[in-house]
Amino acid sequence: MDPPFVGGIGSLEYREIDLSLQGDARRAQVRRPPADGRSSSSDSLPSPTPQPLLAPSLRQQLTKMSTPARKRLMRDFKRLQHDPPAGISGAPYDNNIMLWNAVIFGPDDTPWDGGTFKLTLQFSEDYPNKPPTVRFISRMFHPNIYADGSICLDILQNQWSPIYDVAAILTSIQSLLCDPNPNSPANSEAARLFSENKREYNRKVREVVEQSWTAD
Question: In terms of domain of life, where is this protein from (predicted)?
Fold first, then answer.
């Protein structure tokens, strides 16, 4: 089942996560009672300084948040926020840095102009040594996009390099819209029309552009 797509670009609420962890740590603090069982008083020996205790699940969250893949994805996210390439946007879904929602806008002055196409990017802990799994949620008609939204693009397969980040991935996909490779078709009908009947191809592209305006 596809994850629900959240419109617009959200932000990771790591401040709320940090505060939640701190609150759990404060509640987990313990004090050692006096040795004689009486209530402590000002002339009692000082108790050892309480140390915060984290439940195993919280420790696991902290560990996961500091993996190389997650650190790299946070850098990718900051770059998209501060220096977004034209016509693309993306952000982690909810508070899951490993699953992203993205939007690619059709390039101006092309049959794709005006389209708003939604994608998901699923990352693994092997990122950036391995590419994410990228798939269009929006209906597409393109020689290199399969019926299920999967994308036939070299940098997502045998030409992947760790130098690519999320911005580079989305920019490459946007470029692919107007520069398909009909010799490596994922959609045979789209590849045939692109090569033999460009007018009909462009008409079908305009159909998916118009559908992108009203699709959920």
Answer: Eukaryota
